[in-house]
Amino acid sequence: MKVAVEVADATELMPKDGHGSANPFVEVEFDGQRHRTRTKFKDLSPAWNETFVFNVSDLARLADQTIEVTVYHDKKSTVGGVGGGGDHGHSRGAHHRNFLGRVHIAGVSIALSADDAPLLRFPLEKRGFFSNIRGDVGLRVYAMPESAAEAAVAAPLIEGEQVPVEVLENKDKKKASSSVSPEEPQVFYSVGAGGKAAAAAIHGGGSALSGGGHPHSGGGHTISGGGLAYDFAQMKQAMTGQPPVNMFHAQTRADMAPLPPTMIQVRPPPVRPRNEYDLVETAPPLASRPGYRRSIIGGEKIASTYDLVEQMLYLYVNVVKARDLPNMDITGSLDPYVELKLGNYKAKTRHLEKNRNPVWNQVFAFSQHSLQSNLLEVVVMDKDFVKDDFVGRLFFDLAEVPLRVPPDSPLAPQWYRLQDKKSEKIHHGELMLSVWMGTQADEAFPNAWHSDAHDVGLESLANTRSKVYFSPRLAYLRVIALGAQDLVPHDRHRPPANVWLKLQLGHQIQRTRAVPGTIDPTWNEELMFVASEPFDEPLVLTVEDRVAADKHEPLGRLVLPLLSAAFQRTDHHKVAEARWFSLSKPTAWDEKAGDAEKKEHLHHKFSSKIHLQLYLEMGYHVLDESTHYSSDLLPASKLLRPKQSIGILELGILDARNLIPMKTKDGRATDAYCVARYGPKWVRTRTVLNTLAPQWNEQYTWEVFDPCTVVTIAVFDNCHWTGHKDDVRDHRIGKVRIRLSTLEVDRVYAHFYPLLALHPSGLRKTGELHLAVRFTCTSWVNMVALYGKPLLPKMHYTQPIPMRQIDYLRHQAMIIVAGRLGRAEPPLRREVVEYMLDVDSHMWSLRRSKANFGRIVALLSGVTAAGRWFNAVRSWRKPITTILVHALFLILVFCPELILPTVFLYLFVVGVWNYRFRPRDPPHMDTRLSQAETTHPDELDEEADTFPTSRPGDIVRARYDRLRHVAGKVQTVVGDLATQGERVQALLSWRDPRATTIFILLSLAVAVFLYVTPFQVVAVLAGLFLLRHPRFRSRMPSVPFNFYRRLPAKSDMLL
């Protein structure tokens, strides 16, 4: 197989000749092969239209290889001295050139055929930090068969236009004698190391490819013996599972068949990434890319913010109202509705009973892909029990429909006189509507009835529309319960048994500890709650006496409004005085009590009081997701938030592919929609019904206040568009997380992200989500300054919340957010919010434990590698390296002021060296790091289990035994670590008197020696002793190590 690179043109290059222009040429390098184009003189927007063909040495490594396209300015070229294309790799030193930019194309993004390879615009990249580069280059990259023999084996021949051989000969002679026209594309074939026969087949006289002789004549050279065609056939057979191909007959047919003069395009085997769970980089036709700023409509520019999605054409029909409709029933009534017909697609408005002047105000949207007719029919019908009656109709030719693109004002609706079935205007009845062509940037798009959902009922239609949501502003409520006074027990002859305070805020209930046998209890406890704006839920406090295990008697009750009772603070130094609140008798405010009883107790004197401090903490950020991938870190108080954002995050949700069918029982595919969350803003795309490859092409924008945050995007299957009950849950399909700090500024990342799901049967790929992401920085100074500031607001560090409360408060915040978003229309249901916020991330998982252990091992691998290197140095395995280390050691010892500069210079050099290996793609879910591919199914089933468990007893016992086995190993490691630490403590603890005596006497001797000996001498002696030759080193453990191992530990004191 070969790879073809078509170099089309470049635009707006950087001037390099000192006169405001440049002489650009392009050099393409792939797999050790290099080609260059002709030089274009005095042209900053040159057009080459040249195609280079490269050999693929190893198809398995194609996904790991990179095509490097570099644009240079030729300083020494002249008009007469410029040759054509071909392999100019050896002429590299003959030209003096200046760098104009380069492009790296990953092997996984190579199109499978020329038909699938659009002309893409690639912005030129810098070579260094101080490079001044601009412009872009247009390229087409695709795979193609190696030879005609390979095409004959791989696919049937495609008939092309037969050109006489004489014409080809004359054309080749003209090409050899004169310069090539810039409009005529050229194709160059690379010569590999396969021998002279292959070279002759491509460049030799009379070859089949050059057209120098007839294919049937003996002068033509062909690839014999199978060769690459045989390898290609065997590879295809291995991928498809077909029986072996008899290459003798296939090669004979290929030799006998005349070679067509035109290039034959076949579809080669798909080029897959290294892992099916890896990212796949794409280059969709987005307006944000250079060269794609032209609309798909008429070639005119469109002023729109939808530059991260592909523009989709829609036919919009806005049915506004009707007037003076004729009576159709005997009773003189009319129940009108409007029906739209466009090919096989039909859409209806709601019918209005007994109304001759109905008002609908409904917008319908037909996708361009679903336009099955050039004529739109609008019919007004009268709803009837038996058969609906015809009232009137209109026809619109789609070729005459106007185009509207924002920011144009909305198209004004017009009155149209209805026609009868003979296309004659009727005397009564007019319909007001407007028809236009637009894109998804139209204001009517979110609320329109789309062509794939016209059969959805009005009540269920809201569950398919795209919406934007905002989480409520949350704050922590801190309640310090000091005590109570003069409580009145129900039995005055018996003091209270156990008195505690019960506090309730919405669904959150907490209790203090119980204080036995007193009417003046003192608790001095601090309790935390999560409150949400507008803080209208009261705090209900009830003092209860626990008289029995399951019996609690209320002794008093207090209902406090938060805004008036709690002190709002943003600084922990501000302290509010504790207040006494009077308790009311509990029965007076019991909901079950009657009105007469309530009035009676309103005048009843009740002297019990409670001592409280209440703070509405506005200086914290309420955590509703894990801090490891949080999307919002701002405090609750608006006064503490930054006044200006540091950037803008733009997300384009393009489409998805290869989704798994989620409704196979219902005979449907998948009704997919996406949910994205960043900060308090949630977005939901529209639901695309009954397809495994939905296209959304919706773009959303967020303000960014901290780059060290994460945006989360998830795909769900909508189970409520048909009007299902609330107990039905939307199915999870997959999730993607993108950390903003890993994105380059102003770069568009377009990738297919794998959607992964863990099932008890194992890891499952549920599809791929196509996203385009761009992070734009608006304030570089503020963004750089953020890296020196704390991640969370100040209150988290000056008055930290105990870790035991963090998980509880986070769960309560999730419940509040889910409840608020669940009351929207369409609702974001609780299962969606739970999945987006990862509420089960703190649950036990053996797989996660293995993954975290692997992360620790990976971190320590650098230390162990350094230890192995040092051991190799001191073992003199490489004498030259050991001598250099000795020299460096002596220099640093006698010049200690060079140690820190050397260390930081080393860090700088390593960072600069690693820049060339920096990640090109944003991070994604790593299946290997997560231990998802090698996990046992029983471990995955345990991870998916509920809490408390719902599995049978024998399975729970087996898992408990396995947990005991794992915990035993952890226990042994922890015990060994404790043993080493206790041995260090035993040096001076006199647990072993002889060992302590030896150590303190040795310490005294070392101290005297160090006082009288210069430090450099000590360092040199110690270093040379450690680096001594193995001939002077014993294989037995050293004396200090033996002394340390003999020190006592407390392991023998354990039971």
TrEMBL record:
Q: Which GO terms describe its cellular component?
A: membrane
The UniProt entry, under Gene3D superfamilies, shows:
C2 domain
Query: What highest taxon heads this organism's lineage?
Result: Eukaryota
Q: Where is this region: Disordered?
A: 926-952
Transmembrane annotation, as ranges: 883-909, 998-1027
Statement: the UniProt record of this protein carries the keyword Nucleotide-binding:
no
Residue span(s) of domain C2: 1-121, 296-416, 455-575, 630-753
Q: How does it sit in the membrane?
A: Multi-pass membrane protein
Task: Tell me which InterPro entries the record gives.
Answer: C2_dom, C2_domain_sf, C2B_MCTP_PRT_plant, C2C_MCTP_PRT_plant, C2D_MCTP_PRT_plant, MCTP_C, QUIRKY-like
What subcellular compartments does it reside in?
Membrane
Q: Read off the PANTHER family from this record.
A: MULTIPLE C2 DOMAIN AND TRANSMEMBRANE REGION PROTEIN 6 (PTHR31425:SF22), PHOSPHORIBOSYLANTHRANILATE TRANSFERASE ISOFORM 1 (PTHR31425)
Family label: Belongs to the MCTP family.
* Protein's name according to its UniProt entry: FT-interacting protein 1-like
Q: Which organism is it from?
A: Canna indica (Indian-shot)
Source organism lineage?
A: Eukaryota, Viridiplantae, Streptophyta, Embryophyta, Tracheophyta
